[in-house]
Amino acid sequence: MKRIFTPKTEYILSMLVFGTLAPFVRGIGVTSGEVALYRAVLASCLIGSYLLITRTKIPFRSARKDIALLILSGMAMGFNWVFLFQAYKYTSVSIATLSYYFAPVIVTIASPIIFHEKLTKKQILCFIGSTIGLILITEIQGGKGGSDWIGILFGLGAACLYATVILLNKFIRSVEGIQRTFLQFIAAVAAVLPYVALTDGFHLGSLDMKGWILLLAVGLFHTGITYCLYFSSLKDLPGQQAAVLGYLDPLVAVFISVAFLEERLTPLQGIGALLILGFSLWNELGSKN
Description:
The protein has 289 residues and is mostly helical. It has one domain (7-284). Helices cover 75% and strands 0% of the residues. The chain has helices at 7-19, 21-26, 32-53, 60-63, 67-90, 93-100, 103-115, 121-137, 146-169, 177-198, 209-234, 239-245, 248-259, 267-284. It is globular.
């Protein structure tokens, strides 16, 4: 298929779209598990159609070697969404997003244990700085009070699951890019479906027109189309440029939270946000991977 945008433009667009996810999710009147399930179903259908149209083959034979990792990473991806969407319900979008963006720090700390890599002084400093930032954003004043803490814990749970996806993907060699994500989405559907069935059940019939529009936007636009843009651009971008531009996602989320949803950050929380994003970005700059 003929490319409409440059890889850099595609990547920037995907980050901007990812950053607008929270308000859409909040407007869908079903449980977080259901939103995650329907997101994976809709995205799987759209990406599957994309693979068919572009005649992109999935190497099923070679994928057998990594089938367990693909299933585990898909399960982690599905429940990562469940936890993140729960975080949106209990606290502000900015705090939920910043808690979630602790994932790179978790990867940095886990890598020496899993891959026997040495922690550099820079990585230790980035871990300390990001952790201080996390402590500062937990400085809750007024508002939801105790529920904010629940939201932060869900955000950190989502961060742990996202870090798990990143770490598992380092071991998957047989499938790359959008094909890998398609298989992981299928695994996410298989994992989240029984969870929804055994907990709160299915409530699609309760959605009004607005809910249906938002759900279709989350599944098809924010996930299906945007993931295609993301992977199409990622393979043609230098790693460091992708790392820097990737921080448009949380910046947009925080901007929307403050400017449009009127969810204010205290000065200390603002400093915490800068510490988390700044130290996480600095950790990625200059990385060989």
